Amino acid sequence: MSWRVLKKPIQARRSASPGRRTLAALALGLFTLATALAQDGLAPVTIIDFSIPEPLTQTPGDPAAGERTVRDSRIASCLICHALPIADEPDPGNIGPSLAGVGSRYSAAELRLRLVNPKAIDPDTIMPAYYWLDGLHRVDLPYQGRTIYSAQQIEDVIAYLLTLTDDTEGSAP
Ligand code: HEC
Questions:
Q1: Is the pTM of this model over 0.90?
Q2: 78: closest CA among 18, 160, 173?
Q3: Whole-angstrom Cα distance, residue 25 to residue 121?
Q4: What is the pLDDT along the chain (173 residues), one digit of tens a residue?
Q5: Alpha-carbon span 101 to 120, nearest angstrom
Q6: Ligand 1: does its nearest atom lie under 6 Å from the Cβ of 95?
Q7: What distance in angstroms lies between residue 82's CA and the mean position of ligand 1's atoms?
Q8: Of 8, 28, 90, 131, which has fewest CB within 10 angstroms of its CB?
């Protein structure tokens, strides 16, 4: 996986005036950065060094709620593609890597970008963007115009993933 390093933070604030937004978009000059500016209605997201350091909500993520969210097959469950160290999960997908130990491999900020918009890391990934609207193709009808997860669900899932450290890998099924 190649990780290009961005020099400048990408600001996507709703409060910015249209003129300043356009200027910022021109200055940054990258398509994905420009699209980040147009996400009206969503929590502002600042992508820096392939991560999103700022939480999307004031309320800290709740790991137990996060586990319920990732298991919920109605909302594009991670288990379609990833194995998770959940004892009673009989048949996880293996399209993506196992998420056992993922809390040791990534920081909260890195996990946040991966969940919000993995296409900012790899434009060709098949992993869905859970908190992004612009520039997505083949979006399932129920999700058109809204994100898969809410901002709070993103934070809850990050909190859950951070509990999946290498220490917990031994209990994987
Ligand atoms: C449609 C399949 C799919 C779904 C659904 C999916 N992912 Fe992924 N995910 C992938 C693939 C494929 C990769 C490998 C890298 C890439 O292609 O972006 C990946 C990579 C990752 C990584 C980086 C793992 C590593 O070891 O580098 C994390 C973390 C991750 N996914 C978390 C999640 C979480 C959490 C969910 C549910 C909220 C989820 N994914 C849902 C396909 C999926």
A1: no
A2: 160
A3: 19
A4: 444 444 444 444 444 455 665 655 544 444 444 344 446 678 888 888 899 999 999 999 999 999 999 988 888 889 889 998 887 776 778 899 999 999 999 999 999 999 999 999 999 999 999 998 866 655 565 656 778 999 999 999 999 999 999 876 544 44
A5: 23
A6: yes
A7: 7
A8: 90
